[in-house]
Amino acid sequence: MKKMTPELLASFSDRTKLVYAGRDPSEQFGFVNTPIYRGSTVLYPSTAEYLDRKNTRFTYGTHGTPTSEALETAWSGISGAAGTVCVPSGLAAIAVALFSCLKAGDHLLITDSVYRPTRTFANGVLKRFGVETTYFDPMIGGGIEALMRPNTTAIFTEAPGSQTFEVQDIPAISAVAHKHGATVLMDNTWATPFFFPPHEMGVDLAIEAGTKYLSGHSDILLGMVTANEKSWQALRTTFDEMSICAGPEDMFLALRGMRSMLLRLKEQEKAALDMANWIKARPEVETVLHPALPECPGHAIWKRDFKGSSGLFSFILKPYSRKAVEAMLDDLALFGIGASWGGYESLITPFDPRSYRTATEWKAAGPALRIQIGLEDVEDLKRDLAAGFDRLRAAA
Ligand SMILES: *Cc1c(COP(=O)(O)O)cnc(C)c1O
Is the same domain home to 146 and 177? Predict the structure, then answer.
């Protein structure tokens, strides 16, 4: 078989890349997959080579193993990035990315629709280390210029917001940021690099919670940060200085999940769109928040910039009581009630943006529900939810 060089791999489509990325059977005695390398110590053949170890491929477990190198190389290829670091969770990825571009005295801008633990991290750790955060309206676009201060060094975006689904204008925000010398970070977990190539769109540091679609099976915690040329050295140095390396088994499982990631994502995308349209037609529903539907804030931006949608969206019910919502959800057979998403099983969770938003007002009168579509038959899912809607009405 011809050797798969990075250049050759780059010439193939995403589907083919996923099959060949991050493995070289000639280095593994012919075995197809890169195995789990467990290790802290790396032994050197001589004192001279130990003293010159900066120039060797692997030096110590926290700085990389063939397993982490495989996943990082594969993910960089898929993301169009200069480099990737793998860390033990999605939130750890957000933390290391922010630490790589902030210092005491800096000002940070974060979208008001951000993943809630990102907000907790900024308001807690970052504040203690002297970084001030301002939250901005996710629909602000180029208007973000008005919020820039001389010490604004980073803008943290998430498109769409993973509960309320406003799609941000990343190219417009990036243009303003770069004019002022600020770094653009994006939590790209929802679209993944397949549906939104972050670095092509102006993002300097892109975060993917590997816990979600890369895993695909709700059984690992993992995060990755990719960087463009400009931000790569600072990211890699910060990662090495903090030493928050992901575990080898989790990285192996991520490589395994990666092979089927795009196929799962496309099935989940199709079923979620079908489901979103079905939910939209229900009399109990006020509105559906799905970037591919016209009523979603930022739908036109999604259409312009994104190549697909994922299996996660929200909808707002007409005003029903908490008791009625509990009656609807508690007896569902196929939708689990729980956080996270991206696995093969469907989930549904209530949420209330009023409990955390600070820059914008959440005006919906009825309760909001977020749905993750798994790999079940979508007609079975509709039947399950239809019975739930009947219980909602009956308990009202
Ligand atoms: C889940 C999630 C994360 C964090 O991932 P963990 O691995 O659970 O820390 C970050 N961003 C978004 C949008 C998420 O949904």
Answer: yes
Tell me which of 258, 288, 316 is where a domain ends: 258
Q: Structural domain tally of the chain?
A: 2
Verify that 247 and 379 share a domain, yes or no: no
DSSP 215-243: T-SS----EEEEE-HHHHHHHHHHHHHHT
- Residue 6: per-residue pLDDT: 86
Residues 114-138 pLDDT 10s: 999 999 999 999 999 999 999 999 9
Domain of 170 in residue numbering reads as 13-258
Residue 103: CA count within 13 A, CB half-sphere: 3
| Residue 95 Cα to ligand 1 middle (Å) | 12
Reported as a single tens digit per residue, the pLDDT across 147-179 is 999 999 999 999 999 999 999 999 999 999 999
The pLDDT assigned to 249 comes to 97
Q: How far is Cα 126 from Cα 102, in angstroms, rounded to an integer?
A: 9
Q: What's the pLDDT score for residue 353? A: 93
Task: Identify the DSSP state of 350.
Answer: E
Ligand 1 pocket, Cβ-based, cut-off 6 angstroms: 89-91, 115, 162, 187, 189, 209, 211-212, 221, 223, 340
Name the residue type at position 283: P
| DSSP-derived secondary structure for 45-69 | SSHHHHHTGGGSS--BGGG--HHHH
Q: How far is the CA of 188 from the centre of ligand 1 (A)?
A: 10
What pTM does this model have?
Answer: 0.97
Listed as ranges, residues in the chain with pLDDT below 50 are none
CATH (domain of 375)? 3.90.1150.10
Whether 239 and 370 map to the same domain: the answer is: no
237/282 same-domain check: no
pLDDT of 384 reads 98
Q: How far apart are the first and last CA of the chain?
A: 65
Residue that terminates a domain, selected from 222, 243, 258 = 258
Residue whose CA is at the smallest distance from ligand 1 atom 5: 90
Distance 254 CA to ligand 1 centre (A): 15
Calculate how far, in angstroms, residue 120's C-alpha sits from the geometric centre of ligand 1.
13
Residues 280 and 237 in one domain: no
Ligand 1 pocket test, candidate residues 87, 94, 162, most atoms within 8 A of CB: 162
